[in-house]
Amino acid sequence: MRVEIDTWFSLRGSVYQAFAAILLLCSAPCALAATAPWLWTPVTEAQFFSDLVPEMELPMRWEYLKGDAPDAIAMNDIVNRIDRHLRLENPDAMMDVPPPRVKVRDHEDVQAFAVASRVCLDLPLRLDSSGSSVAEFAEVTRDDTVEPLRRQYAKCVHLTQPEEVQAFIVWFNREHEHCRLEVAGEIGNQEVVPGAGCRFDQRITGKISRAKVLTVKANAPWLIANTGLFRVAQTQDQVAFVIAHELAHYYRAHYARSQSRYTRGFYSHEDEADELATRWLAAIGMDPNAGIDFFSNYLQLFPEAANASADGDMDRAHSDPCQRTQNIARVIADLSQGN
């Protein structure tokens, strides 16, 4: 399936092109790594199983292929090729970003995904003054909602030093469009105060006055790909497109970054991941059309997906494959013109 580029002229298309110009300057972590190095947390394979699997409710150890299985080797080779390319192009930005790896799960699911971790700010968080209880942890989500967490779901990298705390607050307020945080009180007796733009989950309102620790999601250097992916991805290049898409979520720290501020309602994290995946495939000598072919196969298997739409829901994973195909076709046209 090839999409005619001439059909992609609209306000949406012009916004896509504006963001594309920015991406050309910043197709890797760029300044993010320098200003917010905690967004990428180093996690060994042992820690993946001991910490991330229970923390993020991931598939258990016995569900994954061994590292020397052919499918695991092939997928990690794609990861390595893209990672090498980005480190050559952006050595300073990539210095503190852990090289990612992929775990291959023996399962019929056709999806792949990047794995989240958590960062904890070791200061109490002021919540609803009318509440009477205290939570161990509260997390601010990408859509500016503050939610309580159960204790067992907050293993994380801790930020404790004043300069780390200040850098975190500056970064958070830059990344979130509505929710703003400030630190009140003197060192040694400080607390984080959410602004009016932060929405409290119903489990907090009228119930929880404060949380002992504030958390946000960060990016673990792991992807998970299901073997069911091969039902859709029928060539190595199509598999590479899916892996590159998930790598874009990792390198661009999408788990931690507010989608509403970043996209302004036009250009989503998924759009950016598709764009970067297409550019990276071209950069390492693979077929940039692979994303279009992948979605063509996907729609043959799942024709009902043609009616999918994000509809403004920040937590909905993926939008209409036809729309995403148009975005990829635009990127391919840009590449053909040397952009």
Helical content (DSSP H or I, runs of 4+): 25-40%
How large, in whole angstroms, is the Cα Rg?
21 Å
Q: How would you describe the shape?
A: globular
Low-confidence runs of at least 5 consecutive residues: 1-26, 310-317
How are helices and strands ordered from N to C? Answer: HHHHHEEEEEEHEEEEHHHHH
How would you describe this protein?
With 339 residues, this protein is of the alpha/beta class. β4 and β5 form a beta hairpin. Residues 1-26 and 310-317 have low confidence and may be disordered. The strands form 2 sheets. Strands 1, 2, 3, 4, 5, 6, 9 and 10 form an 8-stranded mixed beta sheet that branches. Strands 7-8 form a two-stranded antiparallel sheet. The protein contains 11 helices and 10 strands. The protein has helices spanning 11-25, 31-35, 45-55, 70-89, 91-94, 162-175, 236-251, 259-263, 269-283, 290-301, 321-336, and strands spanning 101-105, 112-121, 125-126, 133-140, 145-149, 157-159, 181-184, 191-194, 199-200, 208-226. Helix content is 39%, strand content 18%. α4 crosses α7 (236-251) and α7 packs across α9.
